[in-house]
Fold:
Amino acid sequence: MTLLECLLVLAAGVCAGTINTVVGSGTLITFPVLLGVGYSPITANVSNSLGLVPGSLSGAYGYRRELAGQRQRVIRYGTASLLGGASGAALLFVLPASAFEAIVPAMIALALVLVVFQPRLARALAARRHPDAPPREGGAGTFALGYLTGVYGGYFGAAQGIILLAIFGLTLDEEMQRVNALKNVLAMIVNLVAGIVFVFVAHVAWEAVALLAVGSAAGGQLGAHVGRRLPPQVLRAVIVVVGVVAIVQLLAR
Structure:
């Protein structure tokens, strides 16, 4: 890569790390940039997954206060993400590149609707529960949805964070910022396990990985600084804006 291309990949990493920590879908920035500087789609996807792991780790560290008390959730749903990420990475070498293209925009649109109406849906669900019932902690269905989101994340991953926010926003009795903290950890697990699989079976552009790693780590801290200070309503608005942009970009490919 030329110096200009290196700077472009580094800047894309910063933007992706920031957006992934606050919402998700940073891959929609980094993946086209890697294609633009000359990498093949498979190499770009593989290198992108590895390069964004430090950004997810940085964002999770930035949200460490919101992670307090969520150890069991991280273990339970992290297992689902690990299994799903490994499955998705394997599918990348089995399914055609267009396998998810038709359904991903619809998945993101549904997730956005759920995010927007999550407070109203949560109130409706709470009204139907017995007053002495324990807080909702998900269940087998939530585990399965977490696994399927991990499969998608391991395969491609754009906007997996938005989908996770929608799932856990409805199935856990928890505020949005703490759900966002959980999302950052799960996205990191998916990217990490997929990246490990890719190292053994695909070509990795290590120079791109290094640039994305540095940029996304810095972006993760920036995203945590900004995202943790957003009121729930503003955070939902940011999610919707990023999600709509993601849908438009995916449909325009």
Q: What stands out?
A: Residues 3-252 form one domain. The chain has a mean pLDDT of 84.
